[in-house]
Here is the input.
Amino acid sequence: MTKAPAATDHPADDHAEQGEDASPRPRNRRGQGLLLREEIVRAATALIVRTGSDQAVTLRSVAREVGIAAPSIYAHFPDRDAIVEAVVLEAIAQLHQAIAAAVAGYEDPVESLLAGCAAYVDFGVREPARYRVLFGRAHPEREAPAAGVPGRRQGLDAFQTLVDNLRACVSAGRSSSTDPFADAVAIWTALHGQVTLRADLPDFPWPPTDTVERMTRNLGRIDS
Here is the structure.
């Protein structure tokens, strides 16, 4: 299936239509530019959640949501792709925080592994639109590798938590895995499939969510 092209905006159009797009909004006081940036990200997030796609995010649609003129966005973001990227990075950070909080409550490595995987699926099921944009959007070309993009480190950290937890299970004699990294990739793939299939096929007679534990134990080669 061919992905729809990303929505685009033209500065000239923004200036031409700013009168009808923007509703009156009090100007931020000096030093409050960061607040406007946060409002822009929240507005873009709301559009994605309502529509289920980042295609709804344009400079004009975000400006209408915030109540500002579209050209005001350029002081904070160069284009709509940068806005979507900010939404993605915020979602990645929150996903990582949810996993970290879940695993912190357990000393047993297996329980910690299972809790982290459950938190991953819970985030995806609870935030289907935000989860989808993490993986399903069209990525703008960048010279820097993904690991070098500011904020993208959180995504790698979330996966590293999975690898570390599985290695802890091996060290404790609870897993027979001989390649924790490869087995962690298999677990992540299964978790991602669980989230996306449940979102795309809500009417399917899904078994209880304890299938997450079953998958994790099987793919992580948990012995007990």
